[in-house]
Design a protein that fits this description.
alpha+beta
Length: 68
Amino acid sequence: MALPPPRPQLAANLIVRAADGRVSLTTLLRHDRRLGRVVWPPLSAIHRRLAPGLLRGAAARMTRGGVR
C-alpha cells in the first residue's frame, strides 16, 4: 500500500504482511529535503507507538467479523 506523501518533502510506503497468524508492518520513508529529516524523528516516535495497536485492532476486527 502506498500512501500519498504527507508533505512534499516526504514519501512513504507502508507494507503490511500477514502469514501464519502473524502480522508485520514495514515503513519505508524517503525524505528529500532537510525539513523531512527534521520532521520524521518526532513523527516516527508517534508511528512506533500507534502502529502496534492499529495492527492489533485490525486483527481483532478480522477475527470477530471477517474482512469487510
